[in-house]
Design a protein that fits this description.
By secondary structure, the chain is mostly helical. It contains 13 helices and 2 strands; from the N terminus they run H-H-H-H-H-E-E-H-H-H-H-H-H-H-H. Helix 7 runs antiparallel to helix 8 and helix 7 packs parallel to helix 9.
């Protein structure tokens, strides 16, 4: 646990101290976020704010991961599968970096072309499928010494569902679906200063808690045999989740209202990819919509609006996603963000309650 705490602390300090320098560099490069005309009235003061701030916490997370493993090497062994980087780390960080790269291309096109079009939706989906397919295959096909893979052979809720066994191809398809859903959901939520950042911190902390609990009751640990978890490298998922949460917390200092920098698609897609990886690696795929309930609500509002307009030529909301609807109603940006964070906390608490409740049920 010392390595996990150290990784979170290092990531926090790096983003807190390093953000002003990155922001200044982005300003010199004139990497300003284009603002849609429909948002001008509410967001006109945000013109000129640099984007691609996601680079800050992506790099900080990677650096903190390295530091975490250096610290881990100095600690006494506790029957962990590996004292160095693992395939689980490769999958999670690979998803974060590669999904972030998709977002970076999108942001770069927006900045260079001075409009909000960026990378077409079709190409985004194609690249997401490609990234999900590559890392999904690694997660399924590269076992540990004990035969465990990052992705389970079953569909999972609070743990693997025994009767929901899937073949390797279906597992990769599910993996791709989780990556696509998560990256696009976080991307849609990133519309107000600090909204996606704060929500992601809450979700990642939940996965740190789940990973730590799995590590304490790991099937590789012979002191816990009554009810143990088959997840591979739970300490690794916890370390990466903590590093990312710490990096986002430091970034939030500069990204909250009024934001000095926007994370852009670079950041939102990177976070989405990492959260998808955490859900798969901890064997809690179907629990993700509960823990990330705010992402589900925001995405659902966009889908409802789209379907209603296409079928009835009527809008359900004044504007979608949902947070922009409340802007049009007259709520302040800060009020929307804080109230949405409360919703995120409630969803996370319910998800953790389900996870821990299942443990108590089996051991009580």
């Amino acid at each position: 646990m010392t390595a996990v705490i150290m990784a979170a602390s290092v990531a926090f300090v790096l983003t807190l101290i390093g953000s002003p320098f990155v922001i200044a560099t982005l300003r010199r490069l004139k990497a300003a976020q284009p603002i849609r005309g429909v948002y001008v009235e509410a967001h006109q003061l945000k013109r000129g704010t640099p984007t691609m701030g996601g680079l800050i916490f992506i790099l900080a997370t990677l650096a903190a991961y390295v530091v975490g493993h250096l610290v881990e090497r100095t600690l006494p062994s506790r029957q962990i599968a590996s004292r160095g980087p693992t395939v689980t780390g490769l999958v999670l960080l690979g998803l974060m970096v590669c999904c972030g790269a998709i977002g970076f291309i999108d942001d770069l096109l927006k900045v260079s072309q001075r409009n909000t079009a960026g990378l077409s939706g079709r190409w985004k989906l194609v690249l997401q499928v490609l990234v999900g397919g590559v890392f999904g295959t690694i997660a399924v096909r590269v076992p540990s010494g004990s035969g465990q893979t990052v992705a389970s052979g079953h569909l999972s809720f609070v743990r693997d569902i025994p009767w929901a066994r899937l073949g390797p191809v279906l597992i990769v398809i599910v993996f791709i679906g989780v990556v696509m859903a998560s990256t696009n959901a976080v991307n849609l939520t990133d519309g107000l200063d600090g909204l996606a950042t704060g929500t992601s911190i809450i979700v990642l902390i939940a996965y740190v808690a789940i990973s730590f609990w799995q590590y304490r009751h790991w099937c590789s640990d012979t002191t816990h045999v009554a009810y143990c978890y088959q997840a591979r490298d739970p300490l690794e998922t916890g370390l990466i989740g903590a590093a990312a949460a710490g990096a986002l917390a430091g970034y939030l200092w500069w990204g909250t209202s009024p934001a000095r920098v926007f994370m852009g698609d670079t950041g939102s897609m990177a976070i989405g990819g990492l959260i998808a990886g955490e859900a798969v690696a901890t064997h809690t795929i179907l629990l993700l919509p509960v823990i990330g309930v705010l992402f589900v609500v925001v995405t659902g509002s966009r889908i409802i609006q789209y379907v209603s307009w296409k079928t009835r030529h009527k809008r359900v909301f004044r504007q979608s996603p949902l947070h922009h609807h409340f802007e049009q109603v007259g709520w302040s940006e800060v009020n929307i963000v804080i109230r949405f964070w409360i919703i995120a906390i409630i969803g996370t608490a319910i998800g953790l309650g389900m996870f821990y409740g299942a443990f108590l049920k089996q051991t009580g």
